[in-house]
Amino acid sequence: MWEYLDSxxxxxxxxxxxxxxxxxxxxxxxxxxxxxxxxxxxxxWVEFKVAPLTLGLKAAEGKxxxxxxxIKVKWAFDDQGLLTVAISSPSGxxxxxxxxxxxxxxxxxxxxxxxxxSTTFEIKGGxxxxxxxxxx
Length: 136
Known about the structure:
single chain, 136 residues, mainly beta, six-stranded antiparallel beta sheet, four-stranded mixed beta sheet, 1 helix, 8% helix
């Protein structure tokens, strides 16, 4: 996010240009909140949810710094359109994964190796979470 653009649409770089504006970090926070889907549900991120908006993207990966560590989220669609999600969070936190709008009537969801049919899953801090969508 540049301070301004010149008439050709290029970053307006000059002697008075500053490249350290706080508001230029806004997209990072919004991408973490919406594309990764990580949001607190209790103060201090003791409880959180992950509800990614995939927006036609094939994949996203990132981490959100919280007290005591980071919540790491990685999701991706394979060539068949099946979703995988991996989440880790610090011990002492709990979360819930809410799947994006994807076809679920013909799918099973494998959570850490166990098949389930739900589209909402519990995440326990300190325990790696892996979800893999499969066909019925």
